[in-house]
Amino acid sequence: MDTKTLKKPVVLVVEDRDIFKKSYESIIQPATSELLFAPTAKEALAIIHQRGNSIDLIVVDIDLPDPTLKGMKLINAIRKKNKRVMIIMIAEHQWSAKKQEKYQGIIDEFYFKSEEITKLENIIRQYIRLV
Known about the structure:
Layout: E1 10-14, H1 18-28, E2 34-38, H2 41-51, E3 57-61, H3 71-81, E4 86-91, H4 97-102, E5 109-112, H5 117-130
Parallel strand pairs: 1-2, 1-3, 3-4, 4-5
Helix pairs in contact: 2-3
């Protein structure tokens, strides 16, 4: 199959810190048809509501600053609207295996900011190929 005929995915990144936005942009932008950013959970939900099921992959910082809509509440709200979208959860600190297991089936992949950025690149490339 000609790679030019493959559909490039639409990716939404939910991240409030500019330094990480720039990293995600350099990793994700080349492989997408459209890269969307939302600095808050509320803005992410507005984009998801507006775009419907056209978003293929969502990268969510679990440590969002909004006290009324934290990352896991956002992820649960996303799953209610779209069960097929792939979700990569990003956290500042490593979670225990037991805590990660609790969210299997809700979150497709976990990435921790303390890990090498190449791990995130590989995760994103893997999921973009699946779209």
